[in-house]
Q: What sequence folds into this?
C-alpha cells in the first residue's frame, strides 16, 4: 500500500486550444507531482524540488509562420466571398463553394496551430543543466490563483534546496540521472536531454 501524501497546494490548468489539462501538486513540502492529459494520452512524473531553479522564466512566443498562414487563408476566403457577391450565378456558386469551404477549414486549422505553437508559459528549469521541467500556463485558471501557486512553489524550492546536505558533484550526478529517466519516459525530448548533458563538463571545470 502506497504512503499517503500530505498535499500542500494544487493547481489545475485547462487549455481548450490544446485540448489539454495540466495538474500540479506540491506534496510533502519538497516534491512536485505533474500530470498532463491531452489528445496524445497522459504523462505523469514527480520531481524533488531541490533540483529546480527557484526563479521561473516567462516564455512568450508568437508562431509567425502560422500567423501568416491565417492571414493568407483569411484573405483568400474574403476574396472568394467578394467574387461570389459580385457574381451570384448558381453555376458559379456551385463551382466555388467547395474551394471556399476548404479555405475556411484551412483558416481554422491555422488558427489552432497558431494557438498551439504560441506558448505563454512560466517555466521552472533544472538547477544546473537549465532543462525545462515545469511549464505553467500563464495566469491559468486565474491570475491570483496562478501567482499564489508560483510563489509557494518558489518558496518550497528554496527551502528544499537549503536542506540538501550533498555536494555539487553529487547534485550534478543526481540531476543528469533524473533527466535521463525523464528522457526515457518521453517527458523531455532527446534534444533537451543532449543539450543538458553538454552543460555538465563546463560546470565540472
A:
Amino acid at each position: 500500500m502506497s504512503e499517503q501524501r500530505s498535499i500542500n497546494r494544487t493547481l489545475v490548468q485547462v487549455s481548450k486550444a490544446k485540448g489539454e489539462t495540466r495538474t500540479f501538486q506540491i506534496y510533502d513540502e519538497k516534491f512536485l507531482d505533474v500530470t498532463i492529459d491531452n489528445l496524445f494520452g497522459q504523462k505523469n512524473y514527480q520531481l524533488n524540488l531541490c533540483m529546480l531553479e527557484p526563479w521561473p522564466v516567462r516564455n512568450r512566443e508568437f508562431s509567425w509562420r502560422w500567423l501568416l498562414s491565417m492571414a493568407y487563408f483569411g484573405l483568400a476566403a474574403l476574396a472568394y466571398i467578394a467574387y461570389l457577391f459580385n457574381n451570384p450565378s448558381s453555376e458559379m456558386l456551385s463551382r466555388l463553394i467547395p474551394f471556399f469551404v476548404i479555405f475556411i477549414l484551412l483558416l481554422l486549422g491555422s488558427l489552432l496551430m497558431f494557438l498551439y505553437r504560441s506558448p505563454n508559459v512560466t517555466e521552472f528549469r533544472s538547477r544546473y543543466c537549465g532543462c525545462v521541467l515545469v511549464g505553467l500556463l500563464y495566469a491559468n485558471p486565474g491570475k491570483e490563483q496562478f501567482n499564489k501557486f508560483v510563489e509557494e512553489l518558489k518558496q518550497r524550492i528554496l527551502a528544499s534546496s537549503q536542506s540538501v546536505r550533498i555536494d555539487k558533484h553529487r547534485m550534478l550526478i543526481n540531476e543528469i540521472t533524473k533527466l535521463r529517466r525523464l528522457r526515457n519516459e518521453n517527458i523531455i525530448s532527446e534534444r533537451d536531454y543532449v543539450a543538458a548533458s553538454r552543460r555538465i563538463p563546463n560546470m565540472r571545470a
